[in-house]
Amino acid sequence: MKYAIIADIHGNLEAFQVVLEDIRAQNVDHIVCLGDVVGYNANPKECLQIVRDMNIPCVKGNHDEYCSTDNPLDGFNPHAAQAVHWTRDQLSAEEKQWLRDLKYTRMAANFTMVHSTLDAPDRWGYVFDKLAAAASFPYQNTQMCFFGHTHVPVAFMRDTMVRGGTYSKFKVDPSKKYFINVGAVGQPRDNNPKCAYVVYDMSAMTIELRRLEYDIAAAQQKILAAGLPERLAERLAFGR
Ligand code: ZN
To answer: Over the stretch 6-54, which tens digit does the pLDDT of each residue have?
Structure first.
């Protein structure tokens, strides 16, 4: 059984379509999404429609939450806040309801899905280091948990201690617990502009990070045409 695990699509239709094409070519059985379908880029409705049409199980991201409510945008940088306001204007009441109904965590097969952290999944903390990963592990009841939010692919492993690092492909040790960031489809931030997602092969017990080129210029043009901040277009070219 093969799972494709995607996160942080962020309304980037060009990136999402390339990822879906690659997923088809990988003979994947199921797809799950770790949240932030909307926010930042110019096609939130289209990306949301695809997720819904394909019945992709999804957890709630912070942008899904803020774009579907009128919650004050404390803690958002000005560009992100502007994109949230813009996205709120695009989404219908019914689409917002769908996003609001998403759960913070859920199970798929034998693994856990979360957008940010397991210790406080509705507080949107960022797991960049071992210390933050160590806080999440005690709440992880499955061997594998996949998360997003930082847009930086990194794998943490716990046995007697917590270790972590970047990865491309590795074999899972059944005696260890893993907390794995799958990178971002729609706005990579690890200085690599290629979109990212993971293929989890449950028979071979392998995790593979896939990186793909997509039409960045087209996504950028849409951002500018929508009147979204220029910075949101620029950053796609640098992957940060
Ligand atoms: Zn995000």
So the answer is: 999 999 999 999 999 999 999 999 999 999 999 999 999 999 999 999 9
- The low-confidence residues of the chain, meaning pLDDT below 50, are none
Cα(142) to centroid of ligand 1, in Å? Answer: 24
- Count up the domains in the chain and report the number: 1
Provide the CATH number for the domain around residue 69.
3.60.21.10
Which residue range(s) make up the domain with 132?
2-236
Whole-number Å distance, alpha carbon 160 to ligand 1 midpoint, is: 31
- Biggest alpha carbon–alpha carbon distance for the chain: 52
What are the distances in angstroms from CA 69 to CA 22, 27, 41, 124?
33, 37, 18, 16
Q: What is the pTM of this model?
A: 0.97
Question: How far is ligand 1, taken at its centre, from the CA of residue 143, in Å?
Answer: 24
What is the CA(8)–ligand 1 centre distance, in A? 5
For residue 158, report the distance from its CA to the centre of ligand 1, in Å.
25
208: Cβ contacts below 8 Å, ≥ 6 apart: 168, 169, 198, 199, 201
Residue keyed to tokens 């939130």:
44
